[in-house]
Amino acid sequence: MPYLWKEFLEQTRGKGLWLGLLLVALTSLFLLAQARSYPADLGFQAMLLSLFDMNVYLLPLLAMFLASFSVYQEKELKTLLMLVTKRESGFSFLWKKSLALQTVLIGAFVIVYLLLAFPMKFLLNFHAASFGAFLLALFIFLAIFVQIGLFLGVASRNKMQLIGANILTWFGVVFLLDLAYLYFLPAVTADNARGFAWAYFLNPIHAVRMMLEHQLGLFSLTGMSRMMEKLVFLDPLVFALINLFLWPTLFFGLALLIRNAGANHD
């Protein structure tokens, strides 16, 4: 609880969180205004998918920057050193810091979209189950990139390195990986389709988007071609949950490994 309250105060006192929330809210309102011209039957679902596509570019960078600078500030102000030498182990600190960051940052963005649900309800054909699927996609997406941000904050030794690591990670996940998929796509056959599918859907952007499309009723698992059946061999929700478990666990472990290596070196 002290970590959660401390993180809440630090994030709300800074400008980064408020600027990020304002940016997300403004872009969402523009998409909401545009969605009024969509067909009534699937207009709401199409708008939610457009919101997610916008979040692909905004949320990874925002989540990583906010989380990584929060952790880096602990090192810069020597509060991390005091905590781990007096009462906390490295594992305990990272665990509590992770929970606090996840709760505060995910909670803040979810609250913004809950507030935006009010104009959605009056302007569009609001569907609660579809909006719940969107919030689930938002939760999975943020949980992964907040944890990556925590790892970058632990691994970086100065602010310039931290900024560069955030930008390079964002560029690699959002743009560079897709270029790699396009390069290897012509070589995909029925024999190696499952291996390519694992590589493709272990990218949280693809896995979560596919899950959202399926939950919104915009992508059906019936009537697929044989190649598509080999590629989408698991329920999209299962792929998304694998990402939710795999990447935060991996980056938490890497952060702990680097933290312990640094402590032993010191």
From TrEMBL:
Keyword Lipid metabolism: yes or no?
no
Q: Which PANTHER family match?
A: ABC TRANSPORTER PERMEASE (PTHR43471)
**To which species is this protein native?**
Deinococcus antarcticus
**The keyword Transmembrane helix is assigned to this record:** yes
Listed name of the protein: Cu-processing system permease protein
Query: Which keywords does this Swiss-Prot/TrEMBL entry list?
Result: Membrane, Transmembrane, Transmembrane helix
The coiled-coil segments of this chain are: none
Transmembrane segment boundaries = 47-72, 93-116, 128-155, 167-184, 233-258
Q: From what superkingdom does this record's organism come?
A: Bacteria
